[in-house]
Amino acid sequence: MAGSTRGEGEEIEREERPSGKKSALATARVSFPDWKETVGPKGKALDSRLVELASMISSKFPDAKVYPRGSNAAAVVEMKTPARFVEFCEWIYRDLKFDHSSLISGVDWLTHLEVVYHWYSTKKRVNIILKVQLDRENPVIPSIMRMWKGANYHERETYDMMGVKFEGHPDLRRIYLEENYEFFPQRKDFRWGLKYG
Predict the structure, then answer these.
(1) For the chain, which has fewer Cβ within 10 Å, the N-terminal or C-terminal residue?
(2) 22-30+37-167: CATH topology
């Protein structure tokens, strides 16, 4: 073990690295004057790992809004389009080692839909929350199953409830409702009692 550092009251092991080389999470520093949250829960300073992670993401994806959130122990990323979504996913999976996809959900803003992803790194012990805006009339985004197999049911549920199509999913079927049901119950224009023909 090369050393240890403390974050949020627990000891975190650092990876052993060749002399003179820094951790990937410490290679970028960017100032964020518009960050609304500068402290974590109960007034504690944000974990430095979150600040480093958010800085690194912001450097690589400057068009995205990125900020650390202490209450979720996460770097939050907001994308207005899915144009660089696949690139982002491949990068955090391959290079940053985010090995667990813990949640995928959808939000209906009436003007657009939003897909929200939660990833966790069991090695770094930090989270990424990604919010991607989609066209409400044709909400399509690539499946992440080729990287995270556990996303299977999360994508199917979001398709079933919100109508988001995950391109490349090997078995994109409704998970609760009948296949010929025409509506999506978690959209804001849904009304109980709607029938399919």
Answers:
(1) C
(2) Beta Polymerase; domain 2 (3.30.460)
